[in-house]
UniProtKB/TrEMBL annotation, chains A, B:
Transmembrane segments: none annotated. GO terms for cellular component: cytoplasm. This is Redox-sensing transcriptional repressor Rex. The keyword DNA repair does not apply. NAD(+) binds at residues 100-105. GO terms for biological process: negative regulation of DNA-templated transcription; response to redox state. HAMAP family: Rex (MF_01131). Homodimer.
Amino acid sequence: MATGRTHRPATRSRGIPEATVARLPLYLRALTALSERSVPTVSSEELAAAAGVNSAKLRKDFSYLGSYGTRGVGYDVEYLVYQISRELGLTQDWPVVIVGIGNLGAALANYGGFASRGFRVAALIDADPAMAGRPVAGLPVRHTDELESIIRDNGVSIGVIATPAGAAQQVCDRLVAAGVTSILNFAPTVLAVPEGVDVRKVDLSIELQILAFHEQRKAGEETTAPSGAGAAAAAAVAARPAAGGRKGPEGDVPAVMPA
Amino acid sequence: MATGRTHRPATRSRGIPEATVARLPLYLRALTALSERSVPTVSSEELAAAAGVNSAKLRKDFSYLGSYGTRGVGYDVEYLVYQISRELGLTQDWPVVIVGIGNLGAALANYGGFASRGFRVAALIDADPAMAGRPVAGLPVRHTDELESIIRDNGVSIGVIATPAGAAQQVCDRLVAAGVTSILNFAPTVLAVPEGVDVRKVDLSIELQILAFHEQRKAGEETTAPSGAGAAAAAAVAARPAAGGRKGPEGDVPAVMPA
DNA sequence: AACTGTGAAGAACTTCACAGCA
DNA sequence: TGCTGTGAAGTTCTTCACAGTT
């Protein structure tokens, strides 16, 4: 998982497990696609395949929402779209601001998946005065000075941070002070927020690192040489701090040091 | 979590739990920051705070890697950086290709977090002939026709898909056929891949939807009106398919239909 | 004295397998 | 007959709490 919640511990919100909540958007996406093809009903098996999960899990997930299926038949697509949307809070309009309009911020501003799900980009905000007024995705970029008034005037409660890491905490503090209570953080930093504020993070490089981990294992298993061009990056490496007799991984290899 | 693995079931790779693997990049980032500030050692408590997890979890995680700490003292920062990097496979060079050079692809190409962790962008690939040759992040964009040769010539095993949803599966198929075995997918689609290929997905709108879910709960709890400008999106909504007597959520409210 | 490493308990999540209903 | 909904079993992850080590 590339992402994780911060604060607000393992309290199931109204009985729906976090893991289930995290999958509802997947189901919704699959259902929306079926809806567009005018498919009237779908079985747990079919929907599960479309969403990339297994059917027992899907049925269990839906059981937390209520009994919305029909035995022997399946689920009514339109009805389920509505129920899940409502459960996720997507039947209301959520104004969001995006702070940090670099490549990523611009990509987010242009991303169609937001608008189609009730998220309305209320404003794009950047600290660079040269950006101010420039249109991105049809909206004029506003300067950071206006952050507080934008939040208040639009009743924004969700903020997206796409600034460099160094600016993220400061932006976060200002968002929170102005009334934002949910933050989606793309900056590679851990944000400190007060109780009651939710943070979710997306770190692009973390995902790649997890892939690399598994990729490395594959290469090892097959005795295929890793496709990389040599064990380069191993250069800037530390020697064991002190003393000896340390147990290596699995106890089989005695912590070998590189060149 | 915004992300999930596909295929390759719950088999712990060499005894390290998935949940632990997913946190190693976080620790690494925190450690790198300490390293840059020339901090020599760190306790589990301090490092956990910097990484945004609790210390028991961190110690447990590290225990899967081996015994790399010193009781009464803590962990040697440089040494731990090396051990985690090695475990993640970051001590080798991973050439990656990015397919789909829109805003998001460009943002990824420019993202510094890749290069600094052993990921080298071997090529940027786009289907639009008008893009071909145009420099993005210092690299000329190459046309999709060259995809297979680029993969083979550079020994690429990790591919990043940042195309529109409609093109993603086709791109994926070509990547896999050419030898890619790990895919990071930004397109909002479920990708089908053969056994042995890892897919991780990042869906920008899924994260927002999860935030909206929790945000909705907060608003409910406090009897504060939701900050959105009216319950707009509730328009295109289905009526209950047929029959009656269905159990609503928690059994307390009888599945109310909107206007 | 301070802090790691880890068995053991507990919580969360997943999967099984089948009763129950249309 | 076919498919949902769900107790129960199984698995993974987290947290506790303390023995062990420097």
